[in-house]
Amino acid sequence: MLTALGHVTGKYALGELSIPLVSSFRFLGMAAVLAFFWRPYTLSHLRQAMQSREALALLVVVEVPLVPLAMFLMITATKPGPVSLVATIVSTRPVFILLDGTVLSLPRLRVLNESLDARALLIKTASVAMIIGGSVS
């Protein structure tokens, strides 16, 4: 519900404000929500995770450039198009997370060390199907 509210209010805001300004407001809003859930031990967990080269590389390569770019492109697509179409396309994100997580957990790479047995993959695939089914319907 909150995601839908964000899409709709973003569409209305784009009628009056520029894409970079709406993107900035969205990032600030997300930061405020994340700050609300911040716990004192979170910083120590982050430091501990950054001791791993793989985790640091993933953070620098994915979280720093790609997440803001994806958010900016989503907002850019919302301006000329219908919110329902953009939201539906954005809701396919779990498919790519499943694929990336599976590839990064392959025995050859073992970056994420996720379980790849048949039962775990079946549960993950069913979960992604339910997420997308709920978003599309």
Describe this structure in words.
The protein contains eight helices and no strands. With 137 residues, it is mainly alpha-helical. The radius of gyration is 18 Å and the shape is globular.
Largest sheet descriptor = none
Oligomer: single chain
Proportion of residues in extended strands:
under 5%
Alpha-beta classification: mainly alpha
- Number of distinct helices: 8
Order of SSEs: HHHHHHHH
Question: Gap between N and C termini, in Å?
Answer: 14 Å
* Approximate shape: globular
Please tally the β strands and state the result: 0
Computed CA radius of gyration, to the nearest angstrom? 18 Å
Q: Share of helix among residues? A: over 70%
Low-confidence residue ranges: none
Mean of residue pLDDT values? 90
Task: Write a brief structural summary.
With 137 residues, this protein is mainly alpha-helical. The chain contains 8 helices and no strands.
Explain the layout of strands and helices.
Layout: H1 2-14, H2 19-36, H3 40-49, H4 53-63, H5 66-78, H6 83-90, H7 93-104, H8 118-136
List keywords for this structure.
137 residues; mainly alpha; globular
